[in-house]
Model the fold of this input.
Amino acid sequence: MKIKILFLAFVSSFCFYKSQSCDEIIKYVKSKNSGITYYSTGSSAISQVTFYSIYDNYKTYYFAIVKFTSNYYREYIYQVGSNTGYNYSMKYMNSAGEAFWKFIHPYNKSLGCAPTFD
Done:
């Protein structure tokens, strides 16, 4: 019974994120903590990436909010894996764009809030 309750809590939390607009999800995630930001001043693609973790209903959710330089610094949010922030932090100084494509972009369908690239 306890496992069933935990599963229902997880499903209801996940559905909360999926039912919100992208801007509402960004606002909610930012309201929970300050996150860890990585600036990419030399990148022509990525301005900054901020990683957040939110503990909710016995589960931790991980998010990356990305600002692209070529899109008027608009923010996009991805729900990512637990080690994504660490992996990105180890590679972004060499190339923020490559680190983005390798570690964040694979999660582009997680919330439906990622830009489409041609």
User: Anything to note?
Assistant: The first strand starts at residue 36 and ends at 39. Residues 28-107 form one domain. Residues 1-12 have pLDDT under 50 and may be disordered. Strands lie at 36-39, 46-56, 59-68, 75-80.
